Amino acid sequence: MEEFRSGLTLRTQGPHAFQLDYDGESADISIPYHYAAEEAGAVLAKAYRLARVVEEEAGLEGYDPQTDSPTAENDLASAVTEFTGIVQWTAETLL
């Protein structure tokens, strides 16, 4: 955990790592686009669980821009589909 004047950054450890940035008024979860297939499902499930905790504890409303839906809907299947599509596009286009 790293703490800064402007907010808090939390980075998970292990094979399904991602980052949460919280500034007291908003939060953002960043997931690297290198997880594929079942790994994407595992990391996104962790991120959605953390989003629910942040919503409950901070009184914020979560939104997933890839699925264009609130995180409270917990549409993990759509999130995985969108995420793996971006991973595939990145691999084919940028690498």
Description:
- The chain has 95 residues and is an alpha+beta fold.
- The chain has one domain.
- Helices cover 42% and strands 21% of the residues.
- α1 (37-58) packs across α2.
- The mean pLDDT is 90.
Provide key terms for this protein.
4-stranded antiparallel sheet; alpha+beta; 21% strand; 95 residues; single chain; 6 strands
* Low-pLDDT ranges: none
Strand order of the largest sheet: 1-2-3-4
Count the beta strands: 6
Given helix and strand content, the structural type is alpha+beta
Mean pLDDT: 90
Identify the overall geometry.
globular
Distance between the termini: 31 Å
The helix/strand order is EEEEHEEH
Helix tally? 2
- Work out the strand percent: 15-25%
Task: Count the domains.
Answer: 1
Task: Give a brief outline of the structure.
By secondary structure, this protein is of the alpha+beta class. The chain is built from two helices and six strands.
Question: What's the topology here?
Answer:
Elements: E1 2-4, E2 7-11, E3 19-22, E4 27-30, H1 37-58, E5 63-64, E6 69-70, H2 76-93
Antiparallel strand pairs: 1-2, 2-3, 3-4, 5-6
